[in-house]
């Protein structure tokens, strides 16, 4: 699991708040019992007195037989529980309560992150990933090869639409398994409506389920954020831009739909190059082929993608149009 420092800190603050809330609740219950059952407090004081007495004896005589103290302490503890139950309270009414009894709301168990931490991290990542609602519908369980012809061969390749789609999915699965490894990047290209964005959403769902940090941007939003940072617009402090460089998984969707300029080209190169250097995984989806990319942006960007990205192509008819004509949601 890999979270940004700010995300990890946010989760740990949640655990601190949980423990504080439950501690206050426990104090409230103790005050209630002191008020309703004064004899319970007397038993508690008796346990404290016996414990201190036994400890004093142990200090002066480490070999002393304290079995009678042990017996009496256990007897009083059972009497306390019985007293609570006889007045309609659970036997553990005064014990600290936890949302997670495995880790006792610390987030860790035996030095490992608890299952509740992993669940909380996944929920946090979904909230911060801008298209979390879409991921409920657009994921591998809803991905269908039926929208890709298994008979129509693509000129110059001799391969069918479905073969291209299966190869793209295979590369997507490899990408998911290798998040954080060197040169684990994916460039998905093809005409409008052939499932590029859908596939990136499928990948995002799996990556987030594995509790990796993720960000999604359309190309236009992506470059607008970078421009705001460079030109210090909207009072930005640069934290969001640092996240772009550090996040485990970055998606830039529909590259080529933004207004291109030397600024766009230089910023794109900087981000791609820096993320390659940091072993951060990136997906680019676009209508542009790699060769088109070199013409629209720069040879340097083309070189980085050819050298450090796996290339996947999707071909076929517009799936959205097919769904309207034939019906279906897959």
Overview of the structural elements:
By secondary structure, this protein is an alpha/beta fold. The protein folds into two domains: 5-109; 129-326, Rossmann fold (3-Layer(aba) Sandwich), CATH 3.40.50.300. It is built from 13 helices and nine strands. It has helices spanning 5-36, 38-60, 67-86, 115-128, 132-135, 161-177, 196-209, 219-230, 239-246, 262-277, 290-296, 299-308, 319-326, and strands spanning 108-109, 112-113, 153-154, 159-160, 186-189, 214-218, 249-255, 281-286, 310-313. The strands form three sheets. The protein has a five-stranded parallel β-sheet, with helices on both faces. Strands 1-2 form a two-stranded antiparallel ribbon. The model has no long low-confidence stretch (mean pLDDT 89).
């Amino acid at each position: 699991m890999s979270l940004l420092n700010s995300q990890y800190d946010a989760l740990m603050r949640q655990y601190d708040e949980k423990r504080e809330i439950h501690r206050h609740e426990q104090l409230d219950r103790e005050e209630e019992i002191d008020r309703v059952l004064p004899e319970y407090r007397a038993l508690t004081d008796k346990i404290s007195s016996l414990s201190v007495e036994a400890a004093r004896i142990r200090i002066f005589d480490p070999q002393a037989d304290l079995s009678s103290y042990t017996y009496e302490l256990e007897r009083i503890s059972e009497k306390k529980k019985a007293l609570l139950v006889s007045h309609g309270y659970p036997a553990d009414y005064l014990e600290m309560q936890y949302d997670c009894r495995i880790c006792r709301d610390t987030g860790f168990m035996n030095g490992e992150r608890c299952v509740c931490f992993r669940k909380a991290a996944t929920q946090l990542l979904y909230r911060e990933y801008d298209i979390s609602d879409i991921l409920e519908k657009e994921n591998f369980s809803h991905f269908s090869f039926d929208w890709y012809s298994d008979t129509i061969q693509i000129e110059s390749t001799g391969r069918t639409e479905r073969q291209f789609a299966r190869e793209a999915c295979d590369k997507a699965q490899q990408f998911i398994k290798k998040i954080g490894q060197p040169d684990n990047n994916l460039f998905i290209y093809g005409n409008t409506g052939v499932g590029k964005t859908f596939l990136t959403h499928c990948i995002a769902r799996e990556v987030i389920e594995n509790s990796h940090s993720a960000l999604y941007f359309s190309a236009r939003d992506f470059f607008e954020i970078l421009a705001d940072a460079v030109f210090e617009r909207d009072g930005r402090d640069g934290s969001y831009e640092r996240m772009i460089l550090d996040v485990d998984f970055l998606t830039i969707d529909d590259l080529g739909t933004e207004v291109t300029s030397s600024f766009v080209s230089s910023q794109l190169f900087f981000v791609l190059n820096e993320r390659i250097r940091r072993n951060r995984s990136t997906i680019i989806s676009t209508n542009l082929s790699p060769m088109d990319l070199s013409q629209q942006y720069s040879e340097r960007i083309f070189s980085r993608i050819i050298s450090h990205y796996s290339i996947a192509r999707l071909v076929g008819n517009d799936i959205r149009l097919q769904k309207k004509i034939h019906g279906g949601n897959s």
